[in-house]
Amino acid sequence: MAQENMKKTATDIRPRRSWLRRVGSVVKWMFILGVMGVLFAGGALGGLVASIVKDDPVRSEQTIQERIGENVVTGFAYFRDGMPIGQLRTEEDRRLVAFKDIPQVIIDAVLAIEDNRFYEHHGVDISGTMRAVKQKLLNESVQTGGSTLTQQLARRVFLNLDKTEDRKVKEILLSLRLERFLSKDEILTAYLNKVPFGNGANGYNVYGIKAAAKGLFGIDDLDKLNMAQAAYLAGLPQLPSAYSAFNGYGEFNETAFNRALDRQHLVLRRMLEEKKITPTQYQEGLAFDIKKSLAPHTKKAYVTFPYLMMETERQAAGILLSLANNNNQDSSKGVSQLEEARQQLLTGGYRVYTTIDKKVYSAMHSISEDSGNFTKESKAKGLEQTAGMMIHNKTGAILGMIEGRDFNVESMNYATQMVRQPGSTMKPIAAYLPALEEGVIQPASILDDAPIILKDGTKGFHIPKNANNRYQGLVTARYALNNSLNLPALKLFDEKVGIKNAWAFAKKLGITTIQDEDYSAQTGVLGGLKYGVSVEDLTNAYSAIGNKGEFNDAFMIEKIVDSKGKIIYQHKVNPERVFSEQTAYLMTDMLHTVITDGTGSTVKRNYKHFRDIPVVGKTGSTQNYADVWFMGYTPDITLGMWVGYKEQINTLEGKTQRKQAQALWAKVMNAVIEKKPDLFPTKKFAQPDGIVKETVSAYSGKLPTSLTDKFTTDIFNKKFVPKDRDDGISLAKYITYGGVNYIPRDGTPDDFLKEKIVVSREKPIEELVKELKAAFASMREHEPLGYYLPADAKTEVPTEIDPREDDGRAPTAPGNAELYYNSGKAVIRFTQSGSPDVVGYRLYRSVNGGPFQKVDVLLAGDGTSFRTDTPANDYAVFYVAAVDVAGNETASGSVGGGAPTPEPSPSPEDGLLPGIEATPGEDIVPGPGATPGTSDEPGITVDPGATVDPGTAVDPGTVLDQPNGNDGQDKAQDSGNKLNARGKRGAR
Length: 988
Prior knowledge:
The protein has a 5-stranded mixed beta sheet, covered by helices on one side. It has a 5-stranded antiparallel beta sheet with strand order 8-7-19-18-17, sandwiched between helices. The termini are far apart. A hairpin with a 4-residue loop joins strand 30 (877-884) and strand 31 (889-891). It has 28 helices and 33 strands. Helix 10 (227-234) crosses helix 13 (279-287) and helix 19 packs across helix 22. With 988 residues, it is of the alpha+beta class.
C-alpha cells in the first residue's frame, strides 16, 4: 500500500516549465499559423490569378517569337526614277529598324525615362514599381512609369490596351514569359518598332522610332538624330496624342508641342541622373531649338497624287493576288481575296516601283487641272471630263495619265476603269490594219463609199450614214480614212476582213472588252460595241503601230519589293509581232494625212512641233457626240485622249467641244515635249524595206490602161503591188435617169446620151436602188432615194436598159415656161411634161428675130430650168420642147422677145429664188410675164446648209458629176457641224 502511494505521489508531482519553453511554444505555433496563413493567402492569390488567366492561353516560344516578329509595315510607291510618290494608303506610317541600327543615344533616352533597370530585371521591376508608386503618392516632379519595357511590349502585342484590373496580372506573367524566350535586345528592338509617337508632319500616325524620326524631323538615318531630338522622341510614347506636335492633317499644334517640349526636358533630367549625359550636354540639349528642326508640313500622297496612288494600289494588289495564284492571270478569286491582297500590300511594307514619269505626269495634269482648257461646268451635265494616257512604244510602259479632272468630284480612274464607245478610232484597229496586213487593200486601193443595208430587229433595216450626210462613191482607202468615211470601213469590217477575223486581230492588240454579242454587231468598227473600250486599251493598240507592228501589253508596275528587300515581282517586256513593219508604215503614212488633209485639222493647227517631232493620229466620235477621241503617236510614244461627260446621255455640243479631244491632245503633247524632250529622240518614222511607190488607176486601184485617164500615186507594200490591169472601166454611150445610168433604147436621140468613161463597181447602182426600195417598204423612217445615191452614181457602167418605153404618142408639152434674168443672163423655167416616156427637154432660142436653134438639153429628173449665157440685150425668144424615148418632141409656148423689166430683189422674208445666188446689191430680173419666187430651180440648187471646208482635198480618184457648172454639192464639205433633217449623224 505504501509503495502504491509512493508511486502515485511520484507520478502526480511534475516539474515546473521554464519561460523559455513557453515562448518557444508560442513562436512555434505562430510560425505554424503564419505558414498556414501564407499558404491560405497564396492559395487564395493563386486561385485569383488562376481565375484571371484561365482563359488566357499559355503561349509557346514559337508563338511569342512569331507575334513579336509580326509588324505592320508601311508600303511606298515610287516614280520611274525612284523618287517617292508617297506611302500606300493607310493612316499609319510604320518602318522597321534593326537593333544594330539603333544609336546608343536613343537607347539611353528611352531607358532613362521608361525603364532604367531594363538590363537588370527579369520582366518585372519591383523596386521600379515601388518607386513609381512613391513618386505618384508624393507627387514628385520626376516620375517614372511603373511598367517595364517588357510589360509595355507584352501589353501592346498580346493584350487589350484598355486599363482593367486583371490586365496587370496578365501583363506581369506575360513579361516573365517574354524574358524567358527573348533577349533584352530583341525586346528593346520590338518595343521601338511598335510603339506610337503621334502624328508626323504629313498627318500620318507614326509608329516606331524610324518612322518617328522621318515623320517629325525628316530624318531617314537614325544616326543623324542629335541628343535633344532623341530625348524629344523618347518622351512621346507615354501620351502620343497629347504630345503630338502635328494634327491629322500635318498642321502644327503649338499647345501639344509645348507639352512635348516639357516632356523632353524631363527625359534630359533623367538621362543626367542616370549619368548618360554630362551637365554640359544636358544644357546643350535644353538649348537646342527643337521647333526649328521639325519637318516641314507636307500633304499626304493620297492628297497630292490621289488618282495615281489609288491606281498603284489597285494594280499592285492585283499582282500580289496573281502571284498567290501562281501567276494564273485568269484565276478568279473574288472580291474578298482581292481585298486580302490589298491589305497585305498596305501593311506588308512593300515598295512598289511604277513606270510613271513625274515630269510627264505633272505636265499632263497641268492641262487637265486648268479649267480654262474646258467648257464651263454645266448644272445639268456636270463637269466636262477627260482622260488620257501616254505609253512608251518600245516597252509598253505607261509614262503618264490623266485619270479625270478632279478626284473630289469623281474618284474613278477614267483612263483605266471607264469603258466607252470608241467611234471611228476603231476603224484602223479592226478594219484598215487587218486589211492592209492581208493585202486586201493598200492606200491607193479603191473603196466604194455607197450605202449598205443592215437588218435591224426594231426598225426592220438600218442604213448607216456618213457624218457629212452624203455618199462619195469610189474613193481611195487613204481618202476614206482621211475623211473618216463610215461605209468603206464597214465594208472592210463586215465583208473583206470579216467580223470574226477583225475582232481576233483587235484582241491581239490588247482590246480586252470584246463580248460575244460584238461578233454580231455589224457596226462594231464604228464603235457599236456592247460595252466599249478603255482609254488604256485603245492607246495600247495604237502604240503597236508606233512600235512597227509589235505589241507590248501596257503596264504601270515595274517591280515590287517586299519588306526584306527581295524583288517578288519584276515586269518583263515581251513584245509580240501582230503585223508587219510594212503594214505599220503604210498605216502610219495614212494616219499622217488624217492630220494634214483630213479630220485631224485641230491637231494640225495647235501642235507646235511638226518640224521636230512627227505625229500621226486618228479622230473618233460616237453618233451623238457623247464621246470624242484622238489617238496619236510619234515614233517613240503614243498618247490617247478622250473627252465626254460622266453620264453618256449627256452629249458634247458645238465645234469646240466636239474637237476638244484633238485640242487637249495637242496641248498635252506640247507640255510634255517642253518638260521632257528626251522622250522623243526619234525624228522621223523610218521607212522599212519593201515599200515602193506606184501609180495606179484612180478608177480601180489597178495598173492603168490606154483608156485610163485618172490616176493616183501612192506607196505600196511591194508584196501587194497590183498586177492586173484596169478592167473596171470602159467607154460607153448611156442615158441617165433617176441618178442611174442605163443602156439607151433604140431611137433615143443622141443628144440625150453621154459617151464617157464609165466604171464597174462591185454592187451596181441599179442593184443598190432595188435593195433600197425593198428596204424602204419595212422602214418607218428613211431619207428620199436620191439621198442614198453616191455622188459618182452617174459614172457607172450601165447594165440594164432604160426602163421607160415609148407609149406611141408624142409627149405632152412642158408648161408654164418663164424667163428670168439672173446676173444679166437668161434663165428659163418650166413645169415638166406629164408623159412617163420623156427622156429630157431641149431649149430653143431665137435671137433678134432669127431662126430658133437648139442651145441646150436637160435630162428628165435633172431639174426644170435652163440657165444660158444669153444677155438681156439680145431680146431673145425661147421655148422648151419635151422629147420622149422614140425621139418625139412637143414644144411649149415661147417666152421673151421684149425688153426686160428689172425687178427688185426679193425681201429677206421671201428668200432668194431657190438655187440662184445673188451678188450683194444685185437684182434678179424676171422675164416678161414671170412671177418672181413662184417655183424652184432644182437643177442648180446648192444645199443652203452646206459649207465647204477649204482644207479638205478631193480625192483625185473620185469622179465628180458637175452638171450645168454646179459643183457645190460635189466638193468635199466640212461635216463637223452638220446634222441631217432629223438631227442624226454618222460616226466620225
